């Protein structure tokens, strides 16, 4: 019974080994050419500032936007397989999808009306 | 290739549709409704939704059906618990809607995003604006609970668990007074709740891995066919841990006192009454339906956990000085008493078991009583909010005899004194346990009841036989919503103690699981 | 006992009970709003009940078999116990119904005057109504459970009314005493009902009397003795007689209605109603006889020594009910005589109590007869009505008591054996003593030199009080003759008790009458010699014979009760308190300390840190998983 999990355990082991290996080996084999951009925390996205606005904390709006993104992200995750299997699912699938999108739209309407999409 | 659409009985889903529909409408009202009229509209929508759910469950009485492609089991026990949740939920919503007690007209903060203690926060403290998001949130939670007790599928159960939990985490942090305590409670509840959800989800994964199905009936067949072995047992353990957390059974109760104390009292009432019903509904369904054939695996566990919960709840309750914390430990002890009933025999086929109806009755009785007790707590106030410290209640009977009398009734019921619903409930679960040979457990339960009775009676003694403090609390005059809640819960506590026959009979007839 | 279903007016017989009950409910629930007219409503309901009862009785006389069962509803239905709430209207219960509502009506009217100045008059009438309703239920019920409900109801009403002036410690104590001693008797009645249900499976009169023949002798005797215990408690019979004289602490109308005419006769009703049981158990019947004879003498002896006018009347009641017990103990020959005496006693004793109330009213609530004297001229109506009641009680020829008491004495003598002679002798002696103490009472109250104080101005009572006294006096004079000679009660009661065998008269009735009258005359003469001839000292003389001293202390009944029951009871409770304080409390306190200590120790785990909570949960989960694995592996 447990034998069916052996491949998964193997995969876990491989992944762990790869991560450890990469981290451990990189300092020895990687080239070291520093410049200003290399010392940034991230090489893309928003320019870091010395102090967060108003001192101490990042605005909660970043998190809000991120969460909204996830909502629509998940919607897409569901829409793709449905689009692919639309012929097999038929009308029932369509109805279910409309209900689903409607519910997500409800949340969208709420966020929009309550000013969740405005930055300031 | 065509995929067959699953059968979907809209009638059997009606209670859920009612409640979730009301919640969605609540969100729309929040988005588009004019601010001035939002509060009455939200209260109306939420009440129509929950009461509609209650009425439809009553109309569905007698249904035994597995629907939504096998994901939902609409059966006697499920409907009884759904009706209990909807009814208790409606009463809790009434407590939310109370506007007479707090000088700022609501127990909820106006704007939760404003940092506590900031200038803006102090400005908003005296504003009479009311937060209305709590109503759709609570309605979603009620819907999640109603889904939880009818879930016939581990995945649906998990989804329901999240649907009921997430709004609860949020509304725990919305107290108008003592905001930091409230927010701390919310964060604690969220972190520990996620932790417990992870246990549950991991359990689902293991059970699926072992049996190849997430349907409760499928799990039952697979387990009976001796498939799975160790993995299934581990899965069961993790599932049970997740559910015991929600039911605040020791040793998974640690969040209970902190959250009960910090959350706004109406929310505490809601959690204490409804979450308990939902969690035990799921525990019963999981143990009786999916693992009914593995009875001898989980019985010793439930036995032990019940003892730990009763003892910890009763003993720790002794030294509490805050009434909300005391009631939290009381909730832990009562979870233990309920587990005692779970050990009674489940119903098999058409033969009525003794455990299921006993637990169902107990849940209803305990939910009503504890809701009433928390409702009384909202009445007694001192300067900045509710007066929950024990010493503030000294001599309350002289200041407000009626409040003291009603509180005494609820406390006596919680202690299980005859002629109250608490006695009938305890009698039912202990009898169920004894009939199934678990008399040592019933003995421990009786001793724990005796210990617990001490801290309930201490409050009564304090109210009646102590001199009132000079700068004691004031007793607010409740508005219509709280008055309704107090009247209904007090009447039910008495009636279920004096003439419990009808409801006991109903629970007996309803004690059927399908799936 | 063959009954027919109720028809016509008789099917409305429940109204007889419902009316006073309604009155009580309105008065108690209506509160102060009903103060103004409450007493009138209370009186009206009882009068209406009397009229209805009278009509029912007239109709009953036309029913074949004279017995009607009115089924109302099912009172208790649990398991194999089914108690229907039904009413049985037969000659016996109809007689009681008329007595209760008739005398009750008169006393309600009297109370309007008597309680006129009491601020709680409405409450008084509510309790009186409650009493009448309960008493009617007691006699009209068609099963022992209904009787028991009424039995407890009258006990409650009696308790409330004795303690009506509850701010007087003596009234509160007396009420408590009455309640406790009644409880002792009630236990007997309750046990008897349990025995019936256990042995016969039914508690209805019909079922019990039908099945009682099949019971073993021992069970029957036990049943009879248990019922007798109940009867003794309610009727103030030996050995449970001590509460009745103390009960005179209540307002005088209460003494007249409850503690003279009606409630205290419930014991006689119980034994008469249970005649089919006693017919089968000579042992229990013998005990009834002994109880009756002892109480008869006891009451008469103690009555001679008291100076409190109401206490003397109370002991007289004890003694007269002793006569009735003696009569029912005689069996079929005595039942009708007992009921007849009960009725006439209801008239003249109620009249005497009302007269005593009138005297007290005149004398500012003074009850000590040594402070009366010479009241005949000041209170003419009271004197005449009281005097007629007195003559009826002592058995003055051709007045009520003469007819009914003689019947009992005759019936006792007719037994013909040594016991018959003994009982007859006791009864005749009792008649003499009755004449003595009642004459003493008359002389001390109405004759001789006035001994009242300067500031007392005796005056006749208002007509609302004297009218009922007049009616009762007429009854005292005529009732005996009417019941024995004109409308023979024994014929009327035949459907209930059957036709007694024609007894051989051992002594000619005329001779009995002559002897009894002679003994009565002796008693009167003795009283004249001891009391009337001399000056009555205003303070009871201290140097008296041991007999008088014993009689003044009620033959040490309270002393016996105290030393046999109260003191050992107190010792027991003291011992228990000691054990409780030292042993139980010690254990409890120790346990509480242990629990409290472990509570604070365990409470330290509640740190408030999420990390430690999560760790705790993880630990719990590991234990749960481990336990489950251990169970499945094991």
From TrEMBL, chain A:
Domain of life: Bacteria
Signal peptide: none
Known EC number: 7.1.1.-
Membrane topology recorded in Swiss-Prot or TrEMBL: Multi-pass membrane protein
Cell compartments where the protein resides: Cell membrane; Membrane
Reactions the enzyme catalyzes: a quinone + NADH + 5 H(+)(in) = a quinol + NAD(+) + 4 H(+)(out)
Entry's Gene Ontology molecular function annotations: NADH dehydrogenase (quinone) (non-electrogenic) activity; NADH dehydrogenase (ubiquinone) activity; quinone binding
Pfam families: Oxidored_q4
Root EC class: translocase
Known partners and oligomeric status: NDH-1 is composed of 14 different subunits. Subunits NuoA, H, J, K, L, M, N constitute the membrane sector of the complex.
Recorded family membership: Belongs to the complex I subunit 3 family.
NCBIfam families per UniProt: PRK07928.1 (NF005922)
Record-given protein name: NADH-quinone oxidoreductase subunit A
Protein source organism: Geodermatophilus saharensis
Phylogenetic lineage: Bacteria, Bacillati, Actinomycetota, Actinomycetes, Geodermatophilales
TrEMBL record, chain B:
InterPro entries: NADH-Q_OxRdtase_suN/2, ND/Mrp_TM
rRNA processing among keywords: no
Catalytic activity: a quinone + NADH + 5 H(+)(in) = a quinol + NAD(+) + 4 H(+)(out)
Record keywords: Cell membrane, Membrane, NAD, Quinone, Translocase, Transmembrane, Transmembrane helix, Transport
Bilayer disposition of the protein: Multi-pass membrane protein
Pfam families: Proton_antipo_M (PF00361)
All copies of domain NADH:quinone oxidoreductase/Mrp antiporter transmembrane, residue ranges: 151-449
E.C. numbers: 7.1.1.-
Annotated signal peptide: none
Gene responsible for this protein: nuoN
Top-level taxon of origin: Bacteria
Organism: Geodermatophilus saharensis
Name of the protein: NADH-quinone oxidoreductase subunit N
Localization in the cell: Cell membrane; Endomembrane system; Membrane
Any one annotated GO CC term: endomembrane system
Family that this chain belongs to: Belongs to the complex I subunit 2 family.
Top-level class of the enzyme under EC nomenclature: translocase
Membrane-spanning intervals of the chain: 12-32, 44-64, 76-97, 132-149, 155-175, 187-210, 222-245, 266-288, 300-319, 326-347, 359-380, 401-419, 439-465, 477-499
Matching HAMAP family: NDH1_NuoN_1
Subunit structure, interactors included: NDH-1 is composed of 14 different subunits. Subunits NuoA, H, J, K, L, M, N constitute the membrane sector of the complex.
TrEMBL record, chain C:
GO BP of this protein: ATP synthesis coupled electron transport; electron transport coupled proton transport
Domain (NADH:quinone oxidoreductase/Mrp antiporter transmembrane) ranges: 143-427
Pfam families listed in its UniProt record: Proton_antipo_M, Proton_antipo_N
Name of the featured protein: NADH dehydrogenase subunit L
Keyword Membrane in record: yes
Membrane topology: Multi-pass membrane protein
NCBIfam families assigned to the protein according to its UniProt record, in alphabetical order: NDH_I_L (TIGR01974), PRK06590.1 (NF005141)
GO cellular component, one term: membrane
Location in the cell: Endomembrane system; Membrane
GO molecular function, one term: NADH dehydrogenase (ubiquinone) activity
Entry's transmembrane regions: 12-29, 41-62, 92-112, 124-141, 187-205, 211-233, 254-272, 284-309, 321-340, 375-398, 418-443, 464-487, 507-531, 613-633
Domain NADH-Ubiquinone oxidoreductase (complex I) chain 5 N-terminal: from-to ranges: 76-125
Alphabetical keyword list: Membrane, Transmembrane, Transmembrane helix
PANTHER family per record: NADH-UBIQUINONE OXIDOREDUCTASE CHAIN 5
Transmembrane helix among keywords: yes
Native organism: Geodermatophilus saharensis
């Amino acid at each position: 019974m447990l034998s069916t999990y052996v491949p998964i355990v193997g995969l876990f082991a491989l992944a762990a080994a790869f991560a450890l290996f990469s981290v451990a080996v990189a300092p020895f084999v990687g080239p070291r050419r520093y410049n200003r951009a290399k010392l940034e925390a991230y090489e893309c996205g928003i320019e870091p500032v010395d102090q967060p606005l108003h001192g101490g904390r990042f605005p909660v709006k970043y998190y809000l936007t991120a969460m909204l993104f996830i909502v629509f992200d998940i919607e897409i995750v569901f829409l793709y397989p449905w689009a692919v299997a639309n012929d097999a699912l038929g009308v029932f699938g369509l109805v279910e999808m409309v209900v689903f999108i409607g519910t997500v739209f409800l949340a969208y309407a709420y966020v929009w009306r309550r000013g969740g999409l405005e930055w300031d | 290739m065509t995929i067959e659409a699953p059968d979907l009985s809209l009638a059997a889903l009606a209670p859920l549709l009612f409640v979730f529909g009301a919640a969605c409408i609540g969100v729309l009202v929040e988005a588009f409704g004019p601010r001035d009229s939002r509060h009455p509209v939200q209260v109306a929508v939420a009440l129509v939704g929950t009461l509609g759910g209650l009425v439809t469950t009553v109309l569905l009485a007698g249904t035994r059906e597995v629907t939504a492609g096998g994901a939902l089991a609409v059966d006697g026990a499920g409907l009884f618990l759904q009706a209990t949740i909807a009814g208790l939920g409606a009463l809790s919503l009434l407590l939310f809607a109370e506007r007479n007690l707090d000088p700022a007209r609501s127990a909820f903060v106006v704007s939760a995003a404003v940092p506590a203690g900031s200038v803006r926060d102090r400005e908003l403290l005296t504003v009479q604006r009311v937060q209305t998001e709590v109503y759709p949130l609570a309605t979603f939670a009620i819907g999640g609970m109603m889904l939880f007790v009818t879930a016939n599928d581990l995945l649906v159960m998990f989804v329901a668990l999240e649907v009921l939990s997430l709004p609860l985490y949020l509304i725990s942090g919305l107290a108008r007074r003592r905001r930091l305590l409230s927010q701390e409670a919310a964060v604690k509840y969220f972190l520990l709740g996620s932790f417990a959800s992870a246990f549950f989800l991991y359990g689902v994964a293991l059970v699926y891995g072992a049996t190849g199905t997430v349907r409760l009936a499928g799990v039952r067949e697979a387990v009976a066919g001796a498939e799975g072995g160790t993995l299934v047992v581990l899965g069961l353990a993790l599932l049970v841990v997740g559910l015991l957390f929600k039911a605040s059974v020791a040793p998974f109760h640690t969040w209970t006192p902190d959250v009960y104390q910090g959350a706004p009292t109406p929310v505490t009432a809601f959690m204490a009454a409804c979450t308990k019903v939902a969690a035990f509904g799921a525990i019963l369904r999981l143990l009786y339906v999916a693992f009914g054939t593995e009875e001898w695996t989980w019985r010793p566990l439930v036995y032990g956990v019940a003892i730990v919960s009763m003892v910890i709840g009763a003993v720790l309750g002794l030294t509490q000085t805050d009434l909300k914390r005391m009631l939290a430990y009381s909730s832990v002890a009562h979870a233990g008493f309920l587990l005692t009933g779970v050990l009674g025999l489940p119903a098999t086929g058409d033969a009525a078991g003794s455990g299921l109806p006993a637990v169902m009755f107990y849940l209803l009785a305990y939910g009503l009583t504890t809701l009433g007790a928390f409702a009384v707590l909202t009445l007694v106030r001192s300067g900045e909010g509710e007066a929950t410290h024990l010493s503030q209640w000294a001599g309350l009977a002289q200041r407000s005899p009626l409040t003291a009398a009603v509180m005494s009734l609820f406390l006596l019921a919680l202690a299980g004194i005859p002629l109250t619903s608490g006695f009938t409930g305890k009698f039912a679960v202990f009898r169920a346990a004894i009939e199934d040979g678990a008399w040592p457990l019933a003995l421990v339960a009786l001793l724990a009841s005796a210990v617990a009775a001490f801290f309930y009676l201490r409050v009564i003694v304090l109210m009646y036989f102590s001199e009132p403090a000079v700068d004691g609390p004031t007793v607010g005059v409740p508005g219509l919503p709280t008055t309704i809640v107090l009247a209904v819960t007090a009447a039910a506590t008495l009636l279920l103690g004096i003439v419990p026959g009808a409801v006991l009979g109903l629970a007996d007839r309803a004690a059927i699981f399908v799936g | 006992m063959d009954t027919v279903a109720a028809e016509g007016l008789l099917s409305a017989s429940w109204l007889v009970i419902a009316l006073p009950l309604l009155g009580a409910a309105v008065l108690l629930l209506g509160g102060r709003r009903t103060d103004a007219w409450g007493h009138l409503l209370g009186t009206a309901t009882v009068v209406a009940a009397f009229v209805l009862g009278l009509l029912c009785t007239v109709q009953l006389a036309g029913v074949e078999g004279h017995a009607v069962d009115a089924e109302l509803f099912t009172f208790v239905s649990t398991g194999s116990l089914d108690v229907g709430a039904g009413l049985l209207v037969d000659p016996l219960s109809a007689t009681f119904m008329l007595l209760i509502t008739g005398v009750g009506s008169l006393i309600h009217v009297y109370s309007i005057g008597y309680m006129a100045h009491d601020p709680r008059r409405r409450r008084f009438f509510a309790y009186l109504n409650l009493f009448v309703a309960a008493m009617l239920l007691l006699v009209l019920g068609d099963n022992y459970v209904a009787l028991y409900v009424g039995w407890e109801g009258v006990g409650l009403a009696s308790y409330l009314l004795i303690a009506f002036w509850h701010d007087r410690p003596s009234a509160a104590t007396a009420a408590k005493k009455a309640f406790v001693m009644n409880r002792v008797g009630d236990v007997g009645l309750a046990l008897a009902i349990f025995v019936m249900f256990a042995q016969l499976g039914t508690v209805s009169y019909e079922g019990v009397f039908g099945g009682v023949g099949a019971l073993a002798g021992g069970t029957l005797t036990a049943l009879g003795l248990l019922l007798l215990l109940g009867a003794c408690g309610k009727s103030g019979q030996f050995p449970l007689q001590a509460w009745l004289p103390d009960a005179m602490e209540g307002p005088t109308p209460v003494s007249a209605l409850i503690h003279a005419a009606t409630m205290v006769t419930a014991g006689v009703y119980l034994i008469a109603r249970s005649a089919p049981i006693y017919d089968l158990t000579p042992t229990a019947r013998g005990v009834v006889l002994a109880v009756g004879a002892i109480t008869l003498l006891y009451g008469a002896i103690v009555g001679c020594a008291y100076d409190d006018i109401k206490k003397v009347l109370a002991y007289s009641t004890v003694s007269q009910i002793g006569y009735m017990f003696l009569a029912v103990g005689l069996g079929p020959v005595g039942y009708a005589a007992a009921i007849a005496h009960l009725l006439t006693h209801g008239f003249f004793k109620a009249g005497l109590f009302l007269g005593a109330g009138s005297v007290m009213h005149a004398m500012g609530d003074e009850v000590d007869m040594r402070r009366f004297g010479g009241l005949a001229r000041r209170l003419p109506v009271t004197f005449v009505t009281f005097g007629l009641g007195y003559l009826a009680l002592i058995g003055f020829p051709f007045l009520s008591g003469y007819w009914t008491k003689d019947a009992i004495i005759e019936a006792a003598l007719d037994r013909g054996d040594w016991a018959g002679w003994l009982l007859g002798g006791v009864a005749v002696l009792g008649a003499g003593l009755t004449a003595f103490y009642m004459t003493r009472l008359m002389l001390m109250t109405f004759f001789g030199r006035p001994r009242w104080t300067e500031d007392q101005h005796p005056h006749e009572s208002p007509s609302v009080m004297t009218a009922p006294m007049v009616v009762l006096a007429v009854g005292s004079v005529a009732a005996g003759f009417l019941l024995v000679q004109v409308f023979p009660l024994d014929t009327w009661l035949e459907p209930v008790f059957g036709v007694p065998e024609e007894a051989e008269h051992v002594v000619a009735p005329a001779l009995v009458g002559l002897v009894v009258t002679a003994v009565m005359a002796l008693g009167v003469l003795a009283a004249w010699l001891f009391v009337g001839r001399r000056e009555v000292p205003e303070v009871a003389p201290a140097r008296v014979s041991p007999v008088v001293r014993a009689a003044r202390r009620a033959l040490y009944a309270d002393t016996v009760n105290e030393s046999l029951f109260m003191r050992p009871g107190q010792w027991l409770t003291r011992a228990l308190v000691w054990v409780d304080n030292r042993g139980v409390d010690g254990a409890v306190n120790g346990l509480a300390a242990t629990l409290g200590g472990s509570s604070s120790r365990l409470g330290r785990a509640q740190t408030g840190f999420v990390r430690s909570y999560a760790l705790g949960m993880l630990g719990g989960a590991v234990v749960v998983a481990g336990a489950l694995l251990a169970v499945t592996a094991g």
